[in-house]
Amino acid sequence: MARLLQAPPKFLPTEWDIANKMQCASTESQKSRSERTIAESRRLLDEIEKSTQKTQSDVNKKIEQRQEEIKFWRQELDNKLEQIVHETEVLLTFKTRLEKSLESCKEPLVIAQKCLLNRQRRAGIDLVHDEVEQELVKEAEVLQGVIALLERTLEQTNEQIRLNRSTKYNLEMDLKDKFTASMIDDYCASLTNNTPDIRYADNAVKIEGNFVSPEDWIDFSNINVEKADKQRNNSLALRALIDSILSQTVNDMRKQCEMVNVAFRNRVMEVKDAKHKLETLLAVVMNETASQEKNIAALRKAIADKEGPVKVAQTRLEARNHRPNVELCYDTVQYRLISEVQEITKNIQRQDTLAQAETELKGLRRQQLSLEEEIQLKENTLYIDEVLCMQMRESLYINSF
Which residues form a coiled coil (predicted)? Predict the structure, then answer.
């Protein structure tokens, strides 16, 4: 208890003075450190502010540059898109031309085949593999070749249109993405430190795996532009080819069509000429037949006219054979009667010309029948060539597409 009531120790005046001086020195030191910290903080804040402003200004410039890059590529892509769309529309008109040209080939081919089929109905010697048939076969071959070529070209055109549309789709997707990117960058460019809706984004600085490099970004659009140029050039070349094919095929078909028509006209003239000659021969044969018939009638009359004299002579001989005894004399009368019978019989026998004339008449009638049949064949051939075929071909016109 006595220790508890003991008074605290007393310090010396020097100790008190020292303690006061140390407190002042400590305070002054703390104040100096605080002032240095404040100055350093102000310098740091000023440096950070300048750095932040510089960085933000640099980012703004980068965004602006990026906007220009996107604008440039959007313009490039838009130009290529416009070109490929226009080229596809033009190519579609060429496709229509091909389809119409292909459709127009069907009727000439049907007509050529019908002509060949009709000409199979020619009969006899007129069923000949003549120039008309050769040209018709060639025409059918030309038309079939043209149809095959146009079908292949149409397939090629359809494929090119598909490639153009695929290129158009890629350009549109690229433009769509760049439009979205441009809108985002426009939004970013509009943001300031005082914009109301700015906020913290925890994972904003995290680079995802689907980011691409600027080089890849440029290459992607550049590839789309190059593909668009390539397909457009291919389309231009195809259109030039289509023009050439349509022009050449029309010329080939028209040339062959004219060759067939000329062959038909020449053949009809030949057949008409042959028919005219046959009709002339028929008239000659018919005249000769009439003359031969008159000749046979005259021969028959002549033979009939000799029946009386021979009967008289033979009756006289028969009667004189009944003379009695020595009166049965071989006198001049008997001699002359016998000579008369022999002479008349010989003359009648000499008229075997009748049989020959009848044979000739049969030959003339057979020739007449043959000529009539041949003329009928020519008439049938003329009907087939001039009426069925040539009139059918009059409706044939090969259009240019």
Answer: 31-83, 347-381
Domain topology for 39-191+215-263: Butyryl-CoA Dehydrogenase, subunit A; domain 3 (1.20.140)
DSSP annotation of 125: G
Residue 58 parent element (H or E): helix 13-119
Count of CB atoms within 10 A of residue 115's CB? 23
Radius of gyration of the chain (CA): 63
Residues whose CB falls within 8 Å of the CB of residue 20, separated by 6 or more in sequence, listed in order: none
Burial 232-245 (b: 16+ CB within 10 A, else e): bebbeebbeebeeb
- Tens-digit pLDDT profile for the chain (401 aa)? 455 567 777 878 888 889 888 989 988 889 898 989 899 999 988 888 899 889 889 999 999 999 999 999 999 999 999 999 999 999 999 999 999 999 999 999 999 999 999 999 999 888 999 999 999 999 999 999 999 999 999 999 999 999 999 999 999 999 999 999 999 999 988 888 888 888 877 776 676 667 888 899 999 999 999 999 999 999 999 999 999 999 999 999 999 999 999 999 999 999 999 999 999 999 999 999 898 888 878 877 777 766 667 667 667 767 777 778 776 777 777 767 677 677 667 666 655 677 887 888 899 899 999 999 999 999 999 999 999 999 999 888 888 87
The ranges assigned to domains in the chain are: 39-191+215-263, 283-395
Q: What is the C-alpha separation between 61 and 226, in angstroms, rounded?
A: 30
13-119 and 131-190 helices, crossing angle to 10°? 170
Residue 370 and residue 100 in contact, taking contact as beta carbons nearer than 8 Å = no
- Residue 11, H or E segment: none
Tokens of 207: 């680079």
* Residue 392, Cβ density class (10 Å: 0-12 exposed, 13-18 middle, ≥19 buried): middle
Q: What letter would DSSP give residue 6?
A: P
